[in-house]
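pls design
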């Protein structure tokens, strides 16, 4: 074998030796990031599980304050974990590792937005959610809340609020459904302004429209039953509400005493 061939093989060997070191370093970094994200995800799951207590029919303002306080305590732990995570992710490689934490971000955005609506009756902005989570709102500043992650988190509100709507009615609260419907209508209108095309966001948005329709049906049933409170109306007793479809509603109307008397 000639000297030239030996030098060529040695050169190739040196190149791949460098690759081995880089790949091992990247694999180690991924493992560190993955382990840190596991801790953040655990906190996110605990947050969502804790917030599910809002569906309890017996909770009052004091209990809700306790639920929010518990959530804020977990958010402080989330911030600490994100500080550790941000320190591990190279500044120019956020989207290289983004797949590891994007679903965790969706849960945290959902939790922060849910608290904002129930506590203040408004939509939490991207900046407000980012501050709650403990990351930047602007990608130029480093580890940040991605816009799509924020939007996915908001879309998760629909199913939770439609469930909350029915539970509040069962507990005798006939005002909250109207607030939920107004909020979901405005949220849906906002998403309609976006050019989502056939993306995953578009498919998730379709589920929001279904949730909005479900809440609208609750409002309609409350209206026809005379349970929507006016300013000076006396509060009705809880426990008389149930969601019915159009056939059941018409059947009930046809079998009512008034209808029977008219037929006679």
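designed seq:
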């Amino acid at each position: 074998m000639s000297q030239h061939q030996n030098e060529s093989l040695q050169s190739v060997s040196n190149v791949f030796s460098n690759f081995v070191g880089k790949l091992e370093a990247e694999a180690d970094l991924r493992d560190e990031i993955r382990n840190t994200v596991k801790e953040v995800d655990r906190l996110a799951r605990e947050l969502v599980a804790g917030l599910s207590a809002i569906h309890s029919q017996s909770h009052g303002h004091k209990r809700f304050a306790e639920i929010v306080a518990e959530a804020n305590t977990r958010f402080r732990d989330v911030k600490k974990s994100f500080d550790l995570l941000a320190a591990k992710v190279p500044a120019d490689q956020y989207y290289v590792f983004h797949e590891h934490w994007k679903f965790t971000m969706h849960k945290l955005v959902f939790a922060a937005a849910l608290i904002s609506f129930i506590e203040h009756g408004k939509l939490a902005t991207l900046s407000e959610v980012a501050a709650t989570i403990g990351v930047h709102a602007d990608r130029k500043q480093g580890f940040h809340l991605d816009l799509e992650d924020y939007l996915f988190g908001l879309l998760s509100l629909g199913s939770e609020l439609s469930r909350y709507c029915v539970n509040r009615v069962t507990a005798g609260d006939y005002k909250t459904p109207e607030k939920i419907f107004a909020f979901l209508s405005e949220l849906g209108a906002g998403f309609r302004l976006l050019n989502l095309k056939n993306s995953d966001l578009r498919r998730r948005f379709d589920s929001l429209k279904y949730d909005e329709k479900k809440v609208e049906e609750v409002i309609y049933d409350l209206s026809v039953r005379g349970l929507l409170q006016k300013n000076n109306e006396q509060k009705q007793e809880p426990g008389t509400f149930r969601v019915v479809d159009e056939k059941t509603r018409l059947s009930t109307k046809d079998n009512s005493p008034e209808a029977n008397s008219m037929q006679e």
